[in-house]
């Protein structure tokens, strides 16, 4: 028979430390799910009825809105978003609900609209440079381009005395 060999205490410590490193390394690759904003309760949202509810009853049912419209207080918005992130990548939305409650001038509910993630505009930059108007100069031209231009003729900072009439006309 083969003799059974027990690891030494230092070997057990190394094995435990290695196991801890593997567990910690694997936990960095897990998906992180987060929720931002309002918790949508379908039953409460469906209970808000146009023509029946007003601002006070909507606030009592749904709570304070995430934000209100900027031009007057005719619309209230409740924003809910679920995000997912893998390890150190940028978080990205997987689900979004924007609940818009519209009010008339008297404060009564006119309509309740829902918008999802399909309404979000995806903006991608054009290349890695921002197009600008003006001269296209390199870094060295930007840094050293004004050397010798200060005080040059026609540049407004000329050397010499005042050759024209002064502010009083003399």
From TrEMBL:
Residue ranges constituting the Outer membrane protein assembly factor BamE domain according to the UniProt record: 37-111
Keywords: Cell outer membrane, Lipoprotein, Membrane, Signal
Pfam family, one: BamE
Keyword Ion transport: no
Xref: Gene3D superfamilies: 3.30.1450.10
Membrane spanning residue stretches: none
A GO MF label: protein-macromolecule adaptor activity
GO CC term, one of those recorded: Bam protein complex
GO biological process: Gram-negative-bacterium-type cell outer membrane assembly; protein insertion into membrane
PROSITE patterns hit by this protein: PROKAR_LIPOPROTEIN
PANTHER family documented for this protein: OUTER MEMBRANE PROTEIN ASSEMBLY FACTOR BAME
Protein name (Swiss-Prot/TrEMBL): Outer membrane protein assembly factor BamE (Lipoprotein component of BamABCDE complex)
Species of the source: Sphingobium fontiphilum
């Amino acid at each position: 028979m083969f003799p059974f060999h027990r690891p030494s205490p230092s070997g057990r410590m190394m094995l435990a430390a290695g196991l801890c490193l593997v567990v910690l390394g694997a936990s960095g690759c897990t998906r992180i799910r987060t929720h931002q904003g309002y918790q949508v309760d379908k039953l409460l949202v469906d209970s808000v009825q146009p023509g029946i509810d007003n601002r006070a009853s909507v606030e009592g049912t749904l709570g304070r809105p995430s934000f209100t419209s900027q031009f007057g207080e005719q619309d209230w918005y409740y924003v809910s978003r679920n995000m997912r992130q893998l390890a150190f990548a940028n978080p990205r939305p997987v689900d979004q609900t924007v609940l818009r409650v519209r009010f008339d001038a008297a404060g009564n509910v006119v309509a309740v609209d829902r918008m999802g993630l399909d309404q979000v505009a995806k903006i991608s930059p054009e290349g890695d440079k921002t197009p600008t108007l003006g001269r296209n100069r390199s870094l060295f031209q930007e840094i050293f381009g004004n050397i010798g231009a200060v005080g040059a003729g026609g540049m407004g900072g000329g050397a010499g005395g005042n050759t024209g009439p002064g502010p009083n006309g003399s």
